Amino acid sequence: MTLRPTDRPAIACRDVRADTDDTRQSIDGSAESPASSGSPASPVPGADRFVAAVAVDGEVLFAGPSVPAVLGIERATLVGDDLLDYVHPNDREPVSDALSAVATNRVVTHRLRHANGGFVWVESVVDEELAPEFGGRVVTVRRVDAEQTFPERFREFLEYGTDLVTVVDADGRVRYESPAVEEVLGYEQGSTVGRSPLGYVHPDDRERVTERFYRALNDPDATPTMEYRYRTADGNWVWLESRSRSLPDDVAVGRLLINSRDVSERKARERRLTDRNERLDRFASIVSHDLRNPLSVIRGSMEMAELNGDTEPLERGERAVDRIDQLVSELLTLARQGSGIDEPTEFALGGVAREAWDTAGSADATLVLGADARVCGDRGRLRQVFENLFRNATEHAAPDGTDAIRSTDSGEDAPLTVLVTATGGGFLVADDGPGIDPAHREEVFDPGFTTREDGTGYGLDIVREVVESHGWTIGVRRDGTDPACPDDVTVPDGACFVVGGPDSDAADADEPWIDG
């Protein structure tokens, strides 16, 4: 027969006298004063542990006063019951082994049933020796935090896994996040515990994510997969792909398990592919329509030449062929290069401008270099920007577009001057030609827009694409809004294209910049 505390007239608890206030420590660590030692102990508010004496067969012989704080039941209810009846069925074997006489491991992490019907995770430490006053072993039961409830083999997986694992409770607040949160999002592990993850979702994605998030919380069968933008610790945004599933009701750590991975690179590739497909579609449409008229001219010219022996129509056909060649070259530039840039490098603005002038400038025009600047960007594509802007300036210098000679106010012809200079927030390209009609300033960058009969309308579209691919801006100077230039630089009154971008101090890491 197993002896119980009630079979003896008195039970001597392990008393520990405090150094200063003569306070007596009870067996489960809760304090009671000598004057009240004869009264039943009250549960300690906020206690996270209790002590029990348990027989080898699992019968509870004694339960400490903090049982209600941990399990929500009266201590008397536990006494006389089989402790294993309170243990989750999946955890009973290791608990039973720890209570046995030949146990090698007497520390067990397991679940105990709570009065609310759920389970709480606890760590039980079983004394090696029997307590003679009870005839059983003293067991210290301590409630553990969410991150300690994962078995050791799973914790190791979470520590070395690259995916972010998050557990949220029934209220939608984070209970646990794996160490990958530091690498994926930059947050210190545990810093978002107790908060709703929805507060970190991009505003444009939040409504969609919120609907699926709460559907997953309330529907155990829902397993949504979502792609959305999430704010990182440094204030940037990354694309996450998250798969969620409900946890069983008896799992104490939370209600929903969310597995997330960073798919920003994949989303960038998808955007580039979509952009390229759109450009190829546009190219096919243009080939179908815009090239039809020049080809018709060539065909008709050749037929007339064959019938009349006249060479003038052949010259018209040659001009049409040149237009087709230019149009195809610019359209292929748009279709093949898209909006991406190569790895940014650092170089001098003036050097790239001179190289572009050597290939796209005119012998009848003059290039003037003002203030220089250091630039971090795609050198090849920025050279293309200058080449297109230079061609635009020289082709529009004279009404007939035959050369780069402009008409002055006195009616005399003069060579065109093109200025390239750094500004307070980037650089500009300006000329002293006729300028841009104010009515056309809003559409000069539109694909296909041109004021010349033999123009393609895609040169400035390419310029805009390259500039914006660097994260910069480009616009046409307006009356009374001259950009900030050095004092010794005078901006001509003709067309003026202003490029703006951050300097090296304001730019993020690996972001292109312009230091004037």
TrEMBL record:
<dbReference type="InterPro" id="IPR036097">
    <property type="entry name" value="HisK_dim/P_sf"/>
</dbReference>
<dbReference type="InterPro" id="IPR005467">
    <property type="entry name" value="His_kinase_dom"/>
</dbReference>
<feature type="domain" description="Histidine kinase">
    <location>
        <begin position="286"/>
        <end position="475"/>
    </location>
</feature>
<dbReference type="Pfam" id="PF08447">
    <property type="entry name" value="PAS_3"/>
</dbReference>
<keyword id="KW-0597">Phosphoprotein</keyword>
<feature type="domain" description="PAS">
    <location>
        <begin position="51"/>
        <end position="106"/>
    </location>
</feature>
<dbReference type="InterPro" id="IPR003661">
    <property type="entry name" value="HisK_dim/P_dom"/>
</dbReference>
<feature type="domain" description="PAS">
    <location>
        <begin position="150"/>
        <end position="220"/>
    </location>
</feature>
<feature type="compositionally biased region" description="Low complexity">
    <location>
        <begin position="29"/>
        <end position="44"/>
    </location>
</feature>
<dbReference type="Pfam" id="PF00512">
    <property type="entry name" value="HisKA"/>
</dbReference>
<dbReference type="InterPro" id="IPR013655">
    <property type="entry name" value="PAS_fold_3"/>
</dbReference>
<dbReference type="InterPro" id="IPR003594">
    <property type="entry name" value="HATPase_dom"/>
</dbReference>
<dbReference type="InterPro" id="IPR004358">
    <property type="entry name" value="Sig_transdc_His_kin-like_C"/>
</dbReference>
<protein>
    <recommendedName>
        <fullName>histidine kinase</fullName>
        <ecNumber>2.7.13.3</ecNumber>
    </recommendedName>
</protein>
<feature type="compositionally biased region" description="Basic and acidic residues">
    <location>
        <begin position="14"/>
        <end position="25"/>
    </location>
</feature>
<dbReference type="InterPro" id="IPR000700">
    <property type="entry name" value="PAS-assoc_C"/>
</dbReference>
<dbReference type="InterPro" id="IPR000014">
    <property type="entry name" value="PAS"/>
</dbReference>
<keyword id="KW-0418">Kinase</keyword>
<keyword id="KW-0808">Transferase</keyword>
<dbReference type="InterPro" id="IPR052162">
    <property type="entry name" value="Sensor_kinase/Photoreceptor"/>
</dbReference>
<feature type="domain" description="PAC">
    <location>
        <begin position="224"/>
        <end position="275"/>
    </location>
</feature>
<dbReference type="InterPro" id="IPR036890">
    <property type="entry name" value="HATPase_C_sf"/>
</dbReference>
<feature type="region of interest" description="Disordered">
    <location>
        <begin position="1"/>
        <end position="44"/>
    </location>
</feature>
<dbReference type="InterPro" id="IPR035965">
    <property type="entry name" value="PAS-like_dom_sf"/>
</dbReference>
<dbReference type="GO" id="GO:0000155">
    <property type="term" value="F:phosphorelay sensor kinase activity"/>
</dbReference>
<dbReference type="Pfam" id="PF02518">
    <property type="entry name" value="HATPase_c"/>
</dbReference>
<dbReference type="InterPro" id="IPR001610">
    <property type="entry name" value="PAC"/>
</dbReference>
